[in-house]
């Protein structure tokens, strides 16, 4: 029997009501053990296809409270407030409760890295997608389990994806774009172990501001057996960028990696410095082995990795200090060496600690300025508003509109939207999967080699 017009209207308005209440959203987030502030940054913005209701499975305590405080601050801000509704499941047995009861289909992970690979594995076994902060593996044993997790994910038809925010930094995007201009850049050099074709260095600080407030770090963040050594942590971003820029859209497999050389060293913190960023009254027992006779804590957070992929040499490094000077912050250096020009990102005092991209000529070419103008004009079709400024030393600087400089925290929303596109397409590109696995192979092997 054909439904009446009144019944059809009732169904229509009921559907609209469900849409407005977010109950028909295709994605529901489950946040598992959010011990790192990056978990909250994923929710600093709203997403069209994501339910406003978010499950959280975690132990009660200061780490969860810090996460919740940030979400509540985003919900209550005056400009563009979010509207997240947290469904709290707090207990010491949170992981088992997650396994038994979770209804979300995308698990967000940002916390203790010692546990993260296990969380990834348990989530995909349940047929859930995983959106994980880096690093997804910090030891060779973790890497073996990660391989198994990707195999399970494939059989379950779900995705594992790590949060590579640095792909959305404007100077990096322009560096990648201009390296594809053969007339300007030429061909990517192969380089050597002692003079790599790609170099990337990242400088970070333990004391910092996040969303306008002093960041309180968990005490385990300073234990490399839980957080991971520096050589397996921030370097994941740098290795990711090296592959993403030098081999765009190409799958890099483990067998394409040749030499891997790793070295690492410690940063020392006084107890007062440790206390300021953790609010701890004393060192926890598990850190006492790293405390010297002077009472200072050694954190093995600095690292450097030199490696080659298909004979193209890269060097990446990360260093950590206690606190940046006023007006400064985390910094990034990067160079891609081409046969005709080098593309260099600097963020030092001369740049007022704002990342800037330079084009530096290799050799001498009478038409270098013309090549720069043509390349930048072409890039401006993708990035409207950028311009080139020739400098007295013969190099060029890219002038970038402020609208592109949205900051590190905004990149979490951008990478989340990118993941949502993959979810809607129903598939990750093969190169994304291969490159994730190769990236963590390099970091975990470099850690072992450095010892």
Tell me what you see in this structure.
The chain has 451 residues and is an alpha/beta fold. It folds into two domains: 14-162, Rossmann fold (3-Layer(aba) Sandwich), CATH 3.40.50; 167-406, Dihydrodipicolinate Reductase, domain 2 (2-Layer Sandwich). Helices cover 36% and strands 24% of the residues. The chain contains 14 helices and 17 strands. It has helices spanning 5-20, 38-41, 62-76, 94-101, 113-125, 140-156, 170-179, 182-185, 224-227, 235-246, 271-278, 368-379, 408-425, 430-449, and strands at 29-32, 53-58, 85-90, 106-109, 129-132, 160-162, 198-207, 209-210, 213-214, 257-269, 297-309, 312-323, 331-337, 341-346, 356-361, 387-390, 396-399. The radius of gyration is 23 Å and the shape is globular. The N and C termini lie far apart (76 Å).
What's this, in brief?
The protein has 451 residues and is an alpha/beta fold. 36% of the residues lie in helices and 24% in strands.
